[in-house]
Write a structure and sequence with these properties.
By secondary structure, the chain is an alpha+beta fold. The strands form five sheets. Strands 1, 2, 4 and 5 form a four-stranded antiparallel β-sheet that branches. It has a three-stranded antiparallel β-sheet with strand order 3-12-11, with no helix packed on it. Strands 6-10-13 form a three-stranded antiparallel β-sheet, with helices on one face. It starts with a helix and ends with a helix. A hairpin with a 6-residue loop joins strand 7 and strand 8.
Length: 408
């Protein structure tokens, strides 16, 4: 019946999360030690500018110039699954309130505009909202490209965060992750075995690392969200299995996006992704999902990156959401650090992820966070088994623009 179907969808929606903290640490490898401390209530910053400094509203300088480094929440007997360890963090950077429009959670960390109660209620964006989302999507893309150009051996992820923070503000945007449910930084940097929500710190990137940089900006009342992988030291620094992981993750992502159009059931996304990566010997994370996006950071629909053996909602013109599969070399069950944010693989195997904000159009789909004229062409785009070159969508306009950028 309709009601049983609705109940099943509600249960599915409750089984996955997007960008929110968690204290339930998923599947762990015994006898790993878990932190059971309760989270403190957030403090409201009364400064004129939001951040960890004075009320002048100025943007903080390079992170390592600060004399107030923060030690992350951890205990000495906590056992990590891989080689990555939390480093020291700088205070939350300042956003000038007189210049930048704040999302509702900026000051106290608590989102006020909640998504629809039922996961099958999906907002259809109006033309004026779509134009604002195009602007926020392009802004996010510009910031992501700048962050990617900075990736090199020796740079800290905190320095990348500084670049992201300042680039967002220069474009009139608020860096959406900052203080969202009290997240302490302006972007996520997830290195090697970190699946998602890695907190930028003073660890230097090393040659051969792979890193996902996840950027979201809030511009004129709307969020634009995208992420991409980067190879520290270039493709030649990555081993053969790492290259296969990156290529497979990109190709399953593109293959799933190629199917997006009005009337298609949302369950095709996860099945397409899981079927593709399982054939290559990889696994897909089930605990985190893609999501609807707009004036609210995370809303319906939840986008599952694994097979769901029942009908979900159908895609309609004007739906806007992200597809962002997290693909792992080994086990895909996340193991949570004691900071309540960082999720790694349980076995220390590497993980990769790509993400676009997508708009369903009458003739297919467009990536609102698609690459632009200054974006680099990566090896996984050149060597894709699904569609070679830059991917911007399946609509007539998107195909033409992608061909133009790929051949420049």
């Amino acid at each position: 019946s309709y009601y049983s179907k609705a109940a099943a969808v509600l249960l599915l929606a409750a089984s996955a999360t997007a960008f929110v903290p968690t204290t339930s640490r998923g599947v762990s490898l015994e006898p790993l030690c878990m932190n059971k401390k309760k989270k403190q209530r957030p403090k409201v910053n009364s400064n004129k500018g939001f951040g960890g400094g004075s009320s002048s509203g100025t943007i903080t300088s390079s992170a390592l110039e600060s004399d107030m480094l923060i030690r992350p929440k951890t205990t000495s007997n906590f056992q990590y699954a891989g080689s990555i360890r939390p480093g020291l963090q700088t205070p939350k950077r300042i956003v000038p309130s007189e210049k930048i429009k704040f999302p509702d959670y900026a000051l106290d960390g608590q989102p006020k505009n909640r998504p629809a109660l039922f996961p099958w209620v999906i907002e259809t964006k109006k033309p004026e909202e779509i134009e604002k989302m195009r602007a926020s999507g392009r802004c996010a893309r510009e910031v992501l490209d700048l962050a990617g150009r900075a990736v090199r051996p020796g740079i800290t992820t905190d320095e990348i965060d500084r670049i992201v923070h300042e680039a967002s503000i220069e474009r009139g945007a608020y860096p959406s992750p900052l203080n969202y449910h009290n997240f302490p930084k302006s972007c996520c940097t997830s290195v090697n075995e970190v699946i998602c929500h890695g907190i930028p710190d003073d660890r230097q990137l090393q040659e051969g690392d792979i890193v996902n940089i996840d950027i979201t900006v809030y511009l004129d009342g709307y969020h634009g969200d995208c992420s991409e992988m980067f190879c520290v030291g270039g493709k030649d620094a990555i081993d053969e299995k790492g290259i296969k992981l990156l290529q497979t993750t990109y190709d399953c992502w593109v293959k799933s996006m190629e199917l997006v159009k009005p009337g298609v059931n949302y369950n095709v996304i996860g099945k397409t992704i899981e079927d593709y990566i399982k054939a290559e010997g990889f696994s897909t994370v089930r605990n985190f999902c893609g999501h609807g996006i707009g004036s609210v950071f995370h809303t319906a629909p939840n986008i599952f990156h694994y097979t769901v053996n029942q009908d979900l909602q159908e895609m309609q013109v004007g739906h806007v959401y992200t597809i962002e599969p997290m693909i792992c070399e080994g086990f895909a069950d996340p193991y949570m650090w004691q900071d309540d944010w960082t999720a790694t693989t349980t076995d220390g195997g590497r993980s990769a992820q790509f993400e676009h904000t997508l708009l369903v159009t009458e003739d297919g789909v467009e990536a609102l966070t698609g690459k632009i004229e200054t974006s680099p062409l990566q090896f996984w785009e050149e060597e894709s088994a699904i569609r070679k070159g830059i991917w911007l969508g399946t609509s007539e306009n998107a195909r033409a623009r992608a061909e133009e950028l790929s051949n420049r």
